[in-house]
Design brief:
With 309 residues, the protein is an alpha/beta fold. The chain is built from nine helices and eight strands. α3 (151-169) packs across α4 (183-197).
Length: 309
């Protein structure tokens, strides 16, 4: 008996189903991976303000020593609010410690994971070590508001703080010491650039655990993404300090993983001023309390540079 297609349970009019070619499967997989990659890039752009300015969005940042700002010994006096107006008319409230018969006036620019009001202990500690009146400035967005901080707004706010501090203390801008930590170092560099353009650059600055640029540091962290293309807030300190010829004391911790020391060193090597000092601390991580010994070293190096320049 002849065997037919019907007896075998197949439809003679139906073609066998072909499997996708290897080329098609490769194309489909590659398209999916490209889609995922573009989604990651879009997420980085969307989340950039929160990554660069977390203190403006979150109440507490982990991995920080809770005692890092405590004064080394009791200090007489209190830290007070210091109100000043920024370029758009907004009121900002920094924190100031006025020291009687102070040798210096200092503008301190804090990093991205904290607010000025949380740094009263540090403001007093810095005042004690440097024998200074100290203003810890604030930035728009780090107070109770819906403002989204940017590189430009932070630098504008630093300029406003500098001018207000100069007026309040009767101290010329050129004689005010600028101290910037972490992202505050990038803001300090932008401030210096603006003051150089005004021909009123401060005589000295201190850079504490800061970077050559946020984009450079971010490129190392997110090596698989085109960070320099995607980021808006570059904080290019190398470019901002290129024309500065004052005194620079820069300090960095060797085990710093958040802002690797190589980024700090790259900034230091780029400085064109002949009066600069690099201080490397073997055991200081990014969010660690800076030791009293290191603070005293900063003071002694400042005094040495200012005496010789």
């Amino acid at each position: 008996m002849a065997t037919t297609a019907t007896t075998l349970g197949t439809d003679p009019g139906r073609q066998p189903k072909s499997r996708p070619s290897i080329q098609w499967r490769i194309f489909r997989t590659a398209s999916f991976l490209v889609f995922v990659y573009l989604c990651v890039c879009a997420a980085l752009v969307y989340w950039e303000p929160r990554l660069v300015f977390p203190g403006a969005y979150f109440d507490a940042i982990p991995l920080m020593d809770p005692n890092r700002f405590t004064p080394d010994e009791p200090i007489v006096g209190t830290v007070s609010p210091f109100e000043y107006t920024t370029t758009d008319g907004s009121a900002l409230f920094g924190r100031i410690y006025v020291r009687d018969d102070a040798e210096r006036v200092v503008l301190f620019l804090h990093g991205n994971g904290i607010r000025a009001i949380e740094m009263d202990g540090w403001t007093r500690r810095l005042s004690d070590v440097l024998d200074a009146t100290v203003l810890t400035a604030e930035y728009r967005g780090f107070q109770a508001s819906a403002f989204t901080p940017t590189q430009e707004s932070c630098i504008e706010d630093a300029v406003s703080a500098m001018d207000a501090l100069s007026e309040a203390t009767g101290t010329p801008v050129e004689k005010i010491l600028v101290y910037g930590r972490s992202l505050g170092g990038g803001i300090a560099a932008g401030l210096i650039d603006e003051l150089v353009k005004r021909k009123t650059p401060p005589k000295s600055i201190v850079l504490d655990r800061t970077f050559d640029s946020v984009a450079e540091a971010g490129s190392d962290m997110f090596w698989f993404l085109p960070v320099k293309v995607l980021m808006h807030n570059h904080f290019d300190s190398v470019a901002h300090l290129n024309q500065y010829q004052g005194n620079v004391v820069q300090i960095h911790g060797a085990p710093d993983r958040i802002v690797p020391m190589k980024n700090g060193r790259a900034l230091y090597e780029s400085l064109t001023t002949p009066t600069k000092v690099w201080i490397e601390v073997p055991d200081m991580r990014h969010n660690d309390r800076i030791s009293l010994e290191s603070l005293r070293r900063i003071r002694s190096e400042l005094e040495r540079l200012e005496t010789s320049s």
